Amino acid sequence: MTHLGRLGVLVLMAATAGSTQASAQPGPQTGAGAVTFNRDVLPILQKNCQVCHRPGEIAPMSLLTYEDARPWARAMKTAAVTRRMPPWFADPAYGRFAHDRRLTDAEIATLGAWADGGAVQGDPKDKPAPVAFNDGWNIKPDLIIEMPRGFAVPATGTVAYKNILVKVNFPEDVWISAAEMRPGDRRVLHHGRVLVRPPGAEFMREAVPGEAYDTTSLAVVGKESPETLAKFNPGLGPQDFDQLESAKFVPKGSDLVFNLHYTAIGTAATDRSRVGLVFAKKPPSLRYVMNNGPAAINLAIPPKDGNAEIVSEMTTNVEMKLVYVQPHMHLRGKDYELRVVYPTGQTETVFKAKWDFNWQMGYDLQEPKTLPKGTRIIGVAHFDNSAVNKFNPDPNATVYWGDQNWEEMQNCFIGVLVDPKIDPAGLFSPSGPSLLARGASGPTLSALKQ
User: Fold this and answer.
1) What φ, ψ does residue 45 adopt, rounded to 5°?
2) 78 and 178: one domain?
3) 359-375, pLDDT tens digit by residue?
4) Hey, which end of the chain has fewer CB within 10 Å, N or C?
5) Going by C-beta distance under 8 Å and a sequence separation of 6 or more, which residues neighbour residue 47?
6) From CA 144, how far away is CA 270, in angstroms rounded?
């Protein structure tokens, strides 16, 4: 079963139990004090839930209307009280982030009171105006680029990462202020990226447009590391690049490459992914660059280790502003922490979160963080390779870096803002633990330079 399949089963199980319990509740409350859907609940759903809970999105049910939401009243209360929904894993003690969808205590109490009071609809005059969504997009794209044809995903077996070249040949330099990658069939696309192939690049130089080529997740050729223009992960949503009059740059003559990780689901399927782009209104003052971040390609997780520590590091070669973090691990991941060690020696934890494979979220910093040249960026992650982890493919295996879900990764995609004149290829250098030879375990914090 895929990760989305497991998510759907969990939600449906909770909802089935909730519907049974709801039928035993007293009849609807009356009077001004009754919590109603139209006046009290719908605004909460619009602000925190409908971006995923609507037709065509990742959630298994819609919460746009009273008729949609009423059968799920008890399940919604349970998910809110246990803080399973909305998904948000960043520890509030470390950093502040934009678009935080966590419910307040008052909002949780409102959802609970609505379910307990018979899930009353209320006066239609109390309804706020519906949120305007853009026909299958969370942005309003100026340009939509689609794979030339669908990719056939087999019913069973392992599917290697695929690169698919799309000839665009941008007629001029363009700046992108927002982007959204959308799968053609989200059941089989585990995650994906849209990469920029500038003119003259060796990357995919001989590729036939539309053909699928086996590749790896890193998609690196020699010293070339193509820049990521857009990403798809469960729960990630669109990406904004205009924090400080910033944008992503696509040079004239560039093409795009769809880098795709498919997972067989037991039945054959076809995916034809696409990306929507929003053009900046004017050339930005800063360039937004996405980087793979500190990566522990040398990781080794021992068998049956329930709390294996893995540490990675890289160092900044220029001054920049950190604006975005998105940790990445697989089925054994437990938690992730991102630290920075400034040239002064001061250490700061800028992000810390639990890891949930079903919701691979990104986090925009509410305020950009300046990283001087020579700042060390350190990723600290923990993995559960024990039999207690019900998602663990094999607790008896020593686990190494690899593309497939039964292998592991430890890195953190980061978004940074730099002077547009700076070549993004030289922004970072791997350092410290990430340069060590692979051992029987680790690398761990003991490998850090003090």
Assistant:
1) -65, -40
2) no
3) 888 999 999 999 999 99
4) C
5) 101
6) 19
